[in-house]
Every structure is written in structure tokens, then in C-alpha cells.
Write a structure and sequence with these properties.
heterodimer; A: 122 residues; mainly beta; elongated; B: 418 residues; alpha+beta; Alpha-Beta Plaits; DNA polymerase, domain 1; Dna Ligase, domain 1; 3 domains; five-stranded mixed beta sheet; four-stranded antiparallel beta sheet; 14 helices; globular
Chain lengths: 122, 418
């Protein structure tokens, strides 16, 4: 809506219309229409070592299965945080950047696995 | 064979999907202008809150002090509804949205156990679209809907009820009140009560002739459907009071935007007519378009939900719907289906009078203005007016506790602490 397509002029139709290539579509590249993908915004600097900075947009994938070592969005005692996943004795554990590992349970939930990162100001 | 999947307290579940502090708490979502309860969690239900309760009264009751509330956020609910639809479409070949939170799935010809399939679908929707649901299965839509209702009432947590067999129906029908049946209004239930018919088992055992004498054609169809005789096909159903949908598969695939605009405008106009017939206005709209799921055509499916200046005005609704269609249109696909669903419905009289500002869209063509003026001249000022741009939601409604549009606005993204 509202974007110039070359076909909506009041004068003659643009002869270039058939040759216009669309701009690169990051939503398409990241496949953001998939139902399990949720962009989220990072607050805090605790994961710099993992290359995740404050203000970054992370793409969280709720359809992805947990994998050891991956960063995930977790619901932890009423808070939304980033944590690192680990499989120990057939159970998933979450390690927040502050604090010790916690086993996944009712109040410690894996919400989605981080699959991509978008940084606007580099 | 049909299955109906329905989000549990859908609007509340959408809010809970992004906010863990709302979990396990009594929560309600309020209608436009923060007026009445339009969704409530099980915890809120147990405290005695009813649908339609005016919040300014309920919130003052001491026993309801603990109840949390949210203003309605249809942009968020629409996007979560799209996610539910997309998950279902990836698991069953045919899905038909009935309202923002209810979708019919066609199980005809699918192999394997239907309950197991439903359990898997429920789990996927819960994990991916973050919405807890219940599923009802039946040979007709009315039975599937009833099974869904019973599945929801059962608190064991299974969330799936299969009424596909006559044995299962015989077991459940005697315990179900007629008021719980889709398509039987209060008047019909009262008429049947006079004949001593007060549960589904005694209703289905009635002679069709007597049903015809006692009830309307709709009642007759409901009777047949409950007996397992299909009256509603996959694409039609009795109208919902929660939303007005006008969707259609095209006879021939649509490949030009002009045809799509025409189709979407027609659906919007039809939906607007229905709206006016019910004396209602819509405060939000969902528009979708998609390619054929069954053939080898390249696939594209998109849907967008947005709030509009509350209206029952054809021009406003057509304008909003076609602009939404424009924003979703991608060249090069063969479109198979499109639709317009009006949500956030309320009686026109409930709206605050006055300064819902009639916004002017400077791009409107002169021809349309002339047409609007002609209509306004004939039917009175304000009968028709241009709508505001899709996606803007800043009219003078009170929305004191609106959640962020987590999934559709870049400034509203869910924040995660590192």
C-alpha cells in the first residue's frame, strides 16, 4: 500500500513498469511470515560474549526444537529473559546470564529458540 | 468428517502468550472503550465474571479485586489468529476460519486416528502459535461444534472430544442442554421446553415433521445435523454473533489485482450489509488472500488485521478492505480464495456519540467524493464517509490498558532481558 509501483500514475503508465525489480525484502529473506517466528528486542548487555547486544532484534523460532548450546527466549518466574539451553541427563536446563542453571518446568519455560539476529546500528 | 478447533479464552490467551505475569491469574479483556467483559480466563469465570459484564461495576466488587484486565487489541489477536491458521494449514489440507478464534478442519479422507491427530494439532498450535485450544470432532459441523463445547467443559486437560460415532453421541446427548447447541436460539429452546424437550437426546428423537411444525428452517437443519445428516458444507455455516465473515473460493484463479480488488470490495460490501441488518458496527477487520493449497501452484497466503473507525458504512469498509488487499497483493501468484471478516462487533447504540472524527483521506478521488455527497444528501449527513487509513488506531476510544502490538509493530516488540 502506498508504495510506487509505476502503474498508478495520473499520466502515462511508466514504460519501465515491466522492468522494475522489487527492493530486497528482509522479511522474505528471514521468512518472517512463518507462524512460529517472533521478532523480539534485546535489553541489556549480558550476552555480548555471544554477539548479542542491547537493542538487537532477535528472531525467535517457536517451531524449532531445543538444541544444546543455543540461546532461547524463556519465561522464567514471570520474567521474559534470554538463556542458554543445555541437555543434562535427558532433561533441558536453562542458564540465564546471571544465576545458575535451572531445569525446565512449569515456571521455567522455553518460549522460542533464537534463529537469527538483526542489528540496525552497527 | 469435521473438526472444530477453538482457542480457549482466545483474546486472553493472546495476551498471556507474551506476558508470563498473566499466567494462572484471573484475566479479562474488555470491549472497545473498556466497556464490558468480552473474554475471560477460566480463573475469572470461576470468580463469577460473566461475558458482557460492565467493567466499571465489576471492577468495584471486592471479590473481583484480583482480576487483571486488558483493553482489546485486535491487531494482536488477528496476527495470532493468522498464526493458528497457518499451523493448521500445514497439518491438514483444508481449513476454514469461522471466526477469529474458531476454525473448521476437514478430516474427510485423512488416514489414522482422529483423536491422535487432534492431540498433535493442539500441541503444535500451543507450541508455535502459543494458543491453548480444544478440538471437537463430528460428521457434521453442528456435532463438531458441540463436541468442541463439551471438550472445553471437560477439565481433565485432554481437550479433544470425538463424537464421530453414533455410540459416542448416544452417550453424551442426554447430558447436553439445548441451549448449548449451535443454531438453536433462545426462542427455539423455549418452544421445545414447552413440549418437554430439554436435552439433545430427546431433541434428536423428535419426528422431523414435529420439528418442522415447532421450529424454523434453521431449527430443522440443526435437528438433521445433530442426527449426523450434513446440511452445512465445508464452506457454509450459520452466522456467528462474534464476527461476520464473507469469504469465497474463486471459480477461476485470480491473477490481476483489479479482479482481487473487485472481489474483496464485493465481500466487504456484503459483510457491511449484514452488519447493518443486525444494527451493528465493526471496529476491526481481517482481510486475507491465498493460493490453492491442493495443486502445484506456487503458494502464497497472507492475512492482515487492523482496527478501523467503528463503522457499518459500506464505503468505509470497502476502502479499508481494498487498501489492505493492496498491501498484501503479490504479483505472479494464482489466487484461489480471499475473504473479509468483520470483528469487534457491537450494537451501534453502544457507541459513544460525537467526535469519532470523520477522517479525510486526501487521496480519495473526486468521483468518490461526489458519490459520497450524493449518498449523504439522500440518506443524511454521515451516512457515508471516507475511512481512515488501515493500521492507524488513534480515535477517541478509551483504551486504558492496551498491550503492545508485539508481532506487528517494530516499536512494540517483546523485550527480552539478556
Amino acid at each position: 500500500m502506498g508504495s510506487y509501483q509505476g502503474d498508478d500514475t495520473t499520466g502515462f503508465q511508466s514504460p519501465a513498469q515491466d522492468y522494475v525489480e522489487p527492493v530486497i525484502d528482509l522479511a522474505q529473506l528471514l521468512d518472517l511470515r512463518r507462524p512460529g517466528l517472533y521478532p523480539v528486542r534485546v535489553v541489556g548487555h549480558e550476552l555480548r560474549a555471544r554477539g548479542i547486544h542491547a537493542g538487537d532484534i532477535l528472531i525467535a523460532n517457536a517451531a524449532a526444537e531445543p538444541t544444546s548450546g543455543k540461546v532461547c527466549v524463556a519465561f522464567l518466574h514471570g520474567e521474559v529473559i534470554l538463556a542458554t539451553l543445555n541437555l543434562k541427563d535427558d532433561a533441558w536446563w536453562l542458564t540465564p546470564s546471571k544465576g545458575s542453571p535451572l531445569p525446565v518446568c512449569d515456571d521455567v519455560e522455553i518460549w522460542a529458540i533464537i534463529s537469527a539476529l538483526v542489528r540496525m546500528r552497527v | 468428517m469435521f473438526a472444530l478447533i477453538d482457542g480457549n479464552s482466545f483474546y486472553c490467551s493472546c495476551e498471556r502468550a507474551f506476558d508470563p505475569t498473566l499466567r494462572d491469574k484471573p484475566l479479562v479483556v474488555l470491549s472497545n472503550n473498556d466497556g464490558c467483559v468480552i473474554a475471560r480466563t477460566q480463573e475469572a469465570k470461576e470468580l463469577g465474571l460473566k461475558m458482557g459484564d460492565p467493567w466499571h461495576i465489576a471492577s468495584k466488587k471486592p471479590e473481583l479485586k484480583s482480576v487483571l484486565w486488558k483493553s482489546s487489541n485486535y491487531v494482536l489477536y488477528g496476527d495470532m489468529s493468522r498464526r493458528v491458521f497457518d499451523v493448521l494449514s500445514s497439518m491438514v489440507p483444508r481449513v476454514e476460519p469461522y471466526s477469529i478464534d474458531e476454525m473448521f478442519m476437514d478430516y474427510t479422507g485423512l488416514e489414522g486416528d482422529m483423536t491422535e491427530r487432534s492431540v498433535a494439532i493442539r500441541a503444535a498450535v500451543r507450541q508455535i502459535a502459543k494458543i491453548p485450544t480444544c478440538v471437537g470432532i463430528g460428521p457434521t459441523k453442528t456435532i463438531a461444534k458441540l463436541a468442541n463445547k463439551l471438550a472445553k467443559a471437560d477439565r481433565s486437560g485432554v481437550g479433544v472430544l470425538d463424537l464421530s460415532t453414533a455410540e459416542a453421541r448416544r452417550e453424551f446427548y442426554p447430558c447436553v442442554e439445548l441451549g448449548d447447541v449451535w443454531g438453536l436460539g433462545r426462542a427455539s429452546v423455549a418452544k421445545l421446553a414447552k413440549l418437554g424437550i430439554d436435552n439433545v437426546a430427546s431433541f434428536v428423537s423428535m419426528e422431523p415433521d414435529l420439528v418442522r411444525e415447532t421450529l424454523t428452517v434453521t431449527g430443522q437443519r440443526t435437528h438433521a445435523e445433530l442426527r449426523g445428516v450434513q446440511c452445512f458444507t465445508f464452506t457454509d455455516a450459520p452466522s456467528s454473533r462474534k464476527s461476520i465473515a464473507c469469504t469465497r473460493s474463486f471459480g477461476r484463479a485470480i491473477t490481476s489485482f483489479d479482479d482481487m480488488r473487485e472481489a474483496v470490495a464485493t465481500y466487504a460490501a456484503r459483510a457491511a450489509e449484514k452488519l447493518r441488518r443486525f444494527g451493528m458496527k465493526a471496529g476491526a477487520m481481517q482481510v486475507f488472500m491465498r493460493t490453492n493449497e491442493f495443486n502445484d501452484d506456487p503458494k502464497y497466503s497472507n492475512s492482515v488485521t487492523f482496527e478501523i473507525e467503528p463503522s457499518a458504512d459500506s464505503f468505509a469498509l470497502i476502502g479499508a478492505a481494498t487498501r489492505a488487499a493492496r498491501s498484501m497483493w503479490r504479483e505472479g501468484f494464482r489466487y484461489f480464495k480471499a475473504g473479509v471478516i468483520l470483528i469487534d462487533l457491537y450494537q451501534a447504540a453502544e457507541l459513544p456519540v460525537g467526535d469519532l472524527f470523520a477522517s479525510r483521506d486526501p487521496e480519495k478521488s473526486k468521483a468518490l467524493m461526489t458519490a459520497l455527497d450524493a449518498i449523504n444528501g439522500r440518506f443524511g449527513r454521515g451516512a457515508a464517509r471516507p475511512s481512515i487509513l488501515a493500521g492507524r488506531a488513534d480515535w477517541s476510544m478509551r483504551r486504558g490498558n492496551l498491550s503492545p502490538c508485539y508481532t506487528t509493530r517494530i516499536d512494540d516488540l517483546l523485550t527480552v532481558r539478556s
